[in-house]
TrEMBL record:
GO terms for molecular function: metal ion binding. This is Mycothiol-dependent maleylpyruvate isomerase metal-binding domain-containing protein. It comes from Nocardioides baekrokdamisoli. InterPro entries: DinB/YfiT-like, Maleyloyr_isom, MDMPI_metal-binding. NCBIfam families: maleylpyruvate isomerase family mycothiol-dependent enzyme. SUPFAM superfamilies: DinB/YfiT-like putative metalloenzymes. Gene3D superfamilies: dinb family like domain. Residues 11-52 form the Mycothiol-dependent maleylpyruvate isomerase metal-binding domain.
């Protein structure tokens, strides 16, 4: 699947979750974060990251569904219209914007889909194949991920659990989390 197709699918799945949220102040499996915080994170950090590389994105509305719809569309336009645009000025060096966003952003949408789904009582759209693939890739760079501060300590999950549960544990979440 191309980076553009991958983003289109992950953004649509996340958009379905956004549309199903009824309480934006609901707690999530990310300690101290609400459902709105998950959405704000996914809308704000890519814009700041791209701005640091000289790509300015238009602002998004404040209403959550409109914010996600606008944000997903502006990033999809980058994937569709500028797949070979090389950006520099990032810690990863010069890379095509579509490949870079696919590596660091689309996976974040996938992971945070679990957070938003659980916070809002919806089914998480994580599949075993993608989860196993991500877990295998992330395991090889675990020290860098932990040192970045973006992932907390892993939560021990037995080897007999699903790939989704093992991935969620790897990124520092309790796969058995429920809202209190």
């Amino acid at each position: 699947m191309s980076p553009a197709e991958n983003h289109r699918n992950r953004a649509a799945a996340f958009g379905g979750l956004v549309a199903g949220v009824t309480d934006w102040s609901a707690p999530t499996p990310v300690a101290g974060w609400t459902a709105r915080d998950v959405l704000t994170h996914l809308v704000s950090w890519p814009a700041a990251f791209l701005a640091s590389a000289g790509i300015d994105l238009p602002p998004v509305p404040s209403e959550p569904v409109a914010a996600w719809t606008s944000h997903a569309a502006r990033l999809q336009a980058l994937f569709d219209d500028s797949p070979d645009l090389v950006i520099s000025g990032t810690p990863m060096g010069p890379q095509p914007v579509a490949e870079l966003l696919d590596q660091i952003y689309t996976g974040d949408v996938f992971l945070h889909s679990w957070d938003l789904a659980l916070a809002s009582g919806q089914l998480p759209p994580l599949d075993e194949e993608t989860s196993a693939m991500m877990l295998a890739g992330m395991t090889t760079i675990e020290p860098m991920l932990r040192d970045s501060g973006q992932y907390g300590p892993a939560v021990h999950v037995g080897a007999d659990r699903s790939a989704v549960d093992r991935l969620i544990g790897f990124i520092g979440r309790d796969p058995d989390w429920t809202p209190s």
